[in-house]
Amino acid sequence: MRKAIYIRFVVIALITAVLCGIVSAVLYSVNEKKQTSEQLSALCFAVSRIYDVNSDAVYLSNVAGGERVTIVTPDGTVLSDSIAVANTMENLGTREEIIRANTRTPITVSRKSKTLASPFMYAAIKLSDGNILRLAQKYSGLDGGFVHQLPIVIISLTAALLIAVFIANTFAKKVIYPLEKAADDIATGNYDALADDAYYEVEKITIKIKALLDKINNSQRETAAEKDKIEYILSGMPEGFILLDNNKKIQLAGKSTKKIFRCETDVLGRDISVLTRNTKITESVNKAIAENSFGIFDLNIDDVVYSVRISPVSEGAFGASGVTILLVDVTAERKAQSLRSEFFTNASHELKTPITSIMGFSQMLENGLINVQMCKEICARISTESQRMNSLIMDILTISRLESGTAVTETENVDLGEVARHVSEALAFQASEANVKVTLDCSVVYLNANRQQMYDLLNNLVDNAIKYNVPNGSVTVSVQSQNRGAIITVTDTGIGIASAVQSRIFERFYRANTSGGKTVAGTGLGLAIVKHIVSGLSGEIELESAVGKGTKVTVILPEK
Ligand code: ADP
């Protein structure tokens, strides 16, 4: 721009200077011609006054200050000439000045001399005797005047050109400077330095630029703030979130998303396939784009179950419609669901057996199929099955309360040794029936816990130790306090548990077949209840058992 201004300015200055030169040269020449014409006319008139028939051209030329003088008859015959011999000269009848000289007033003509081949101005006047007096003076004409002035014109033009170059340079600099400065200020972000310019027009532009920049800055700040917000939300979101445009290019992706798909590269602006090529996701995304439909399904990625929700979005922040993908970790939910359904299946199955027995026996009684002797036995079996059902329902209620978190959790300082004594007393009849000796080795150990839960815990362990024992066997219950917390140990000399199933006996409804063919009443829920109570107190259970030798269960309950 600066160069363009500079060149244009110089060209304009040059054209102006040349035009001025030409006009002044023409005016000068016209003026000079007029002056020469007037002077020559005056001289011609004066010479004609002193002419008489005897005057010759040489004499008259001297009078005229040396100008060439010719005396010609009206038909153009040269009578006398101050330079040439008259009779050697051609007839001048065709010359303009001779034709026009028919009054006593001189006329002037400027033209090129046909004899001397150089430009002349001629003045001619009719003499008193009818002949014509002609004066000739060298005259360069308009061209000559211009040529005469050419050096001055050239010098003036050169000077004008130099001045124009200087002014153009200074002007261009001055005009361009604020714009260059504005550009620099914009580039360096020094927006406050904009405006306040010497030129009103430039100042207007810079003010507008400044206002525009302020607007851009504000909208940039707003966009950045919005982006920060979105990034903050996305980075804090444990769920995976992806926003795709309709070309399946990723517009947004949360931090967790990349973790879920184990992707470490930049994904923004790239195809969804950089994150995942899972066909379920790809098909659902295609469907959402093509049919504007939603997709919800579970997906197992690295042993984690995600509930994937694919939703079409209209007119997103990126200015077009697209698709969002949300991945929510539902592993725990799904596990709980499957445990629940497994629990109900097992519970129904376990309840079915005693109910079937009771129904069978009662129908037999109703139909009179039982004689008086058998009646007592059948009633006893109905009672046993009812008790089994009752303890099963009690255990189911206990475990479901424990699992749902609705179990009574009021705590108090419970002496575990005292609880062990109560349990032992309650099971004394059962122990004597089984011919098993129960020995207590209990200190006073207080634990902040729920009394009923502590009772259930010890009752299940001691009950098992008696149930799965052998005649003349023994059970030792120990409650001690150690660094690790309260230690409860129930040791028996019973049938033991095969090492292959030791890891399973804490599962709900699991009953190991270690009874050697003898049917031992049980629900398969006792140890599951123990496990729940212990884990609720952040404790640990250790199991040592050998088939035919006995079992030792150790429960460690940390002091709170
Ligand atoms: P159950 O109501 O059958 O006793 P539990 O959950 O209390 O249910 O025990 C699960 C299984 O573990 C029992 O069926 C039994 O096979 C085994 N078991 C538990 N305690 C002992 C023990 N002290 N000695 C041998 N086997 C045991």
Question: What features would you highlight for this structure?
Answer:
five-stranded antiparallel β-sheet; 13 helices; rod-shaped; Beta-Lactamase; 4 domains; Helix Hairpins
Count of beta strands? 17
Helix content: 40-55%
Q: How many distinct domains?
A: 4
The CATH architecture term of the largest domain is 2-Layer Sandwich
**Helical stretch tally:** 13
**Rounded to an integer, what's the Rg over CA atoms?**
65 Å
Text of the CATH class of the largest domain? Alpha Beta
The SSE string, one letter per element, is: HHEEHEEEHHEEHHEEEHHEHHEEHEEHEE
Please name the CATH topology of the largest domain. Answer: Heat Shock Protein 90
Bound molecules: adenosine-5'-diphosphate
Mean of pLDDT: 86
Q: For this structure, what is the CATH homologous superfamily of the largest domain?
A: Histidine kinase-like ATPase, C-terminal domain
